[in-house]
Amino acid sequence: MSKPSHDTHPHAHGSAVEAVHGGHDSHDAAHIAAHVGGYIKVGAALLVLTGVTVGLSYVDFGSREMNIIVGMLVASLKAGLVAFIFMHLNGEKITIWRFLIMTTIFVIGLFFLTYLFHADPISGTSHSTH
Fold it and tell me: Sign of the CA dihedral 50, 56, 58, 62?
């Protein structure tokens, strides 16, 4: 006794199935090839920016703080590329963008508070020992 085949009777909805699934192989391959090409370009850009980061580590921008700011700018650019392309944020809905913007504002606020702590503009409040 053989197993019954799924195609033992003609499909009345065969044309609908073909319309949904069939005929898209070449389109899918082109779509995937375009994405892979984009991923390779972004990967190359990340490698170049990593080289820029290493090169900038040997440049003196006048102060340690300025060196950190320049390094963070390059790192932010690399993180943005990863988020937009590899994490597919470039095609997300507005809600995700609102959360992303609020998170960015929050992080900038934390960096600013850290800067204020290290700048210590109020005399007599420093925690360092003299």
Answer: negative
Higher pLDDT: 108 or 127? It is 108
- pLDDT at position 44: 94
**DSSP per-residue codes, the chain:** -PPPPTTSS--TTHHHHHHHHTT-HHHHHHHHHHHHHHHHHHHHHHHHHHHHHHHHTTS--SSHHHHHHHHHHHHHHHHHHIIIIIT-GGG--HHHHHHHHHHHHHHHHHHHHHHHHHH--STT---S--
Domain positions in the chain are 39-87, 91-119
Of 25-29, 36-40, 119-123, the least confident = 119-123
